[in-house]
Amino acid sequence: MQAVKMVITGPFSAGKTEFIGAVSEIDVVSTERKISSAAEQIKETTTVAMDFGRITVGDDLVLYLFGTPGQRRFDFMWDILSQGMLGFVVMVDSTKPETFREAKRILETFESYASTPYVVAANKQDMEDAWEPEDLRIILRLRQEVKILPCVATDKESVKNVLLELLYSILEQLDQNSQ
Amino acid sequence: MALKGNLRDFSTTQLLNLINLARKTGTLTIQHSGESAHMSFREGKLIYAYMGDNDNNHLAKILQHSGKLSAEQAQIIQAHAEGKSDKQLGHLLITAGRVTQNDIIQSVRQNVLDIVYRLFTWVEGVFRFEANKLPSPGHITIPIDLESVIMEGSRRLKEWEVLQEELPDLDVSLQFTERPDARLRNINLTVEEWRVVSFVNPRNTIRQIAKANNLSEFEIRRIVYGMLQAGLVEFVDKPKPAPVAEAADQGRRPKRQAVEQPPDVKRSVVERLIDRIKSI
Ligand SMILES: Nc1nc2c(ncn2[C@@H]2O[C@H](COP(=O)(O)OP(=O)(O)O)[C@@H](O)[C@H]2O)c(=O)[nH]1
Ligand SMILES: [Mg+2]
Q1: Exposure on the CB side of residue A83, measured as CA atoms within 13 A
Q2: Residue B243 at interface with chain A, using a CB cutoff of 8 Å
Q3: β-strand partners of A118
Q4: Of A162, B24, B70, B250, which is most buried by a Cβ count within 10 Å?
Q5: Is the CB of A95 under 6 A from ligand 1?
């Protein structure tokens, strides 16, 4: 059995859980919970807050989608999560300019971990206040060859499109490396 | 399309940088403690600006402000110009020999710049960009390159935190963007900035440039930030090591020093993933 994985990252509330849930065949296993009481807070520190989705391709192949934890104190996990990943998606809430700088920081961190392909999903494009993907390209200083895709994580087709574009980028890189 | 937010999260400099690079056309409105500023752009160039009510932006007032008209003259002219556009009024004043065309252009230009430079000191304020909204044809518009405006704006920047966040790492190198000569021609650089420019080279880190020019971290950050936002220079990507094939399912390993290489996955596997996702 071969297991391959992709990482879905981005600032808090960008839509990672929604994105994984849209295509995963199992319920997104998220142990993240709202911190409402001191008791729960303690529980939280002992839990790994991470989304986890699965797409079975066949008896011998399965794809896992990992969402990075929302809280900064879990940043140390990024490095571990990124090991062996096929590629990653950086999700941005297009309606929240206050998160763009954080998104750039996350993107640059993941880029430094791995030279795997990635795409940026300009999420929540169904909302009126959404900034345009091409504006986000400039703001995030994306290189021309990095795709930035309009995304609505609540829409399965939109999520499929983002994953497919990432897979096409992975194919392209494979072809380049084998030349 | 929306371009809405607060300057707390997205500064005037960043907004102008975006408008410049995306060659946007439209009007940006910023509200800040009871004041509102309006700036119009055509294809990424600043063409018009006013504060508050457009009445305060009457050509007579602008010419008075720049010393081309006395307060009395301005008042009389404004009263008589009722219903006339700035363009019509400008023509009348030129024909009457009151002011020259150059007086008008310089005064209007300075008025626009005064407004924009004030915005650089606003650290807070709600902004909104309305695409394709432009001042009515009667207004006098003068295209101003945003690169030089951004450069001047960054000189007025006082917040260390912004610079720290925008430019956290001084151990990176810079290179010129495409056609720096054309851009440089449009920007009035200070002597210090020119010295930094002369050191821009993929072999020099920002820290080295600062040291060579005896600039503090704050000073070098401010200059480099301005040059980055003005689109004059860009970061040099850190070189990545040559690819080495390695298995995806490798166990524990010591802390990685270098960039992780992509897993050694077969083309057929990726193709199967594509087919599977299409079928969801
Ligand atoms: N309108 C809209 N809401 C979305 C979209 N994606 C996510 N959301 C909502 O945004 C909120 C945060 O999403 P979530 O997936 O929990 O973000 P996470 O913190 O990145 O995991 C939730 O209420 C989602 O339902 C989208 O594309 N459009
Ligand atoms: Mg989540």
Answers
A1: 14
A2: yes
A3: A88
A4: A162
A5: no
Question: Domains of chain A (ranges plus CATH)?
Answer: 2-178 (3.40.50.300)
* Contact yes or no for B277 and A163 at CB 8 A: yes
Buried/exposed B214-244: b ≥16 CB within 10 Å, e otherwise: ebeeeebbbbbbbbbbbbbbebbeeeeeeee
pLDDT per position in chain B (280 positions), as tens? Answer: 579 999 988 888 889 999 999 999 999 999 998 899 999 999 999 999 999 876 668 899 999 999 999 999 988 988 888 888 999 999 999 999 989 999 999 999 999 999 999 888 888 999 999 999 999 899 999 999 999 899 888 887 777 777 787 787 899 999 988 777 777 777 778 888 888 888 888 899 999 999 998 898 888 999 999 888 888 888 887 554 444 333 333 333 344 444 555 567 888 999 999 999 999 9
Alpha carbon of A37: minimum distance to chain B alpha carbons (Å): 30
- Nearest residue, CB atoms, A167 vs list B21, B261, B274: B274
CA of A24 to the centre of ligand 2 (A): 14
- Residues in Cβ contact with A68 at an 8 Å cutoff, skipping those fewer than 6 apart: A7, A8, A9, A10, A16, A50, A74, A77, A78, A81, A106
For A159, the token pair is 């999520």
Tokens of A83: 């090991």
Report the distance separating Cα B117 and Cα B109, nearest Å: 12
